[in-house]
Amino acid sequence: MQKFPMTAEGLARLQDELRQLKAEERPAVIRAIAEARAHGDLSENAEYHAARERQSFIEGRITELESIIPSVEVIDTSKLSGDQVRFGAHVTVVDEETEDEKTYRIVGQYEADMKTGSISISSPLAKALMGKKIGDSVEVPAPGGSKVYEIAGVRFA
């Protein structure tokens, strides 16, 4: 069985989502389907079809989470330190062309979220950064051509 690295926070989020889907979302959609059925003709009942679609999504996500969670290998990032980029690190990079500075956290593939600045360990940027130190430059392949970043900071929180 393939193991997936993940932070403890990422695993907790997945477990919370699974609990919410099973305890709240699934029963709510079952009630919505029953209510829509009570309205009669199902062939033209948009509420019924929407509820069935929602149920299909919920069941699919539950199945997905139930297959991911047992395969997680939790990496305790609280014990990590140093100036070398590793899993769980918050890495500040500077685009050498535009001088834009951004900070990313390298996390597991199932907890990556660009809105929060979390990138997957399997992303091209994370792969290029792994093992590097402050002051190193990395070249990252991108759709518009390669980008070069300098590592300005590495911290573990």
Automatic annotation (TrEMBL):
Residue ranges of every copy of the Transcription elongation factor GreA/GreB C-terminal domain listed in the record: 82-154
SUPFAM superfamilies, alphabetized: FKBP-like, GreA transcript cleavage protein, N-terminal domain
GO terms under biological process: DNA-templated transcription elongation; regulation of DNA-templated transcription elongation
Family annotation (Pfam families): GreA_GreB, GreA_GreB_N
This protein's UniProt keywords: DNA-binding, Elongation factor, Protein biosynthesis, Transcription, Transcription regulation
Gene3D superfamilies (UniProt xref): Transcription elongation factor, GreA/GreB, C-terminal domain, Transcription elongation factor, GreA/GreB, N-terminal domain
UniProt xrefs under InterPro entries: GreA/GreB_C_sf (IPR036953), TF_GreA/GreB_CS (IPR018151), Tscrpt_elong_fac_GreA (IPR006359), Tscrpt_elong_fac_GreA/B (IPR028624), Tscrpt_elong_fac_GreA/B_C (IPR001437), Tscrpt_elong_fac_GreA/B_fam (IPR023459), Tscrpt_elong_fac_GreA/B_N (IPR022691), Tscrpt_elong_fac_GreA/B_N_sf (IPR036805)
Entry similarity comment: Belongs to the GreA/GreB family.
PANTHER family: TRANSCRIPTION ELONGATION FACTOR GREA
Record protein name field: Transcription elongation factor GreA
Species: Falsiroseomonas bella
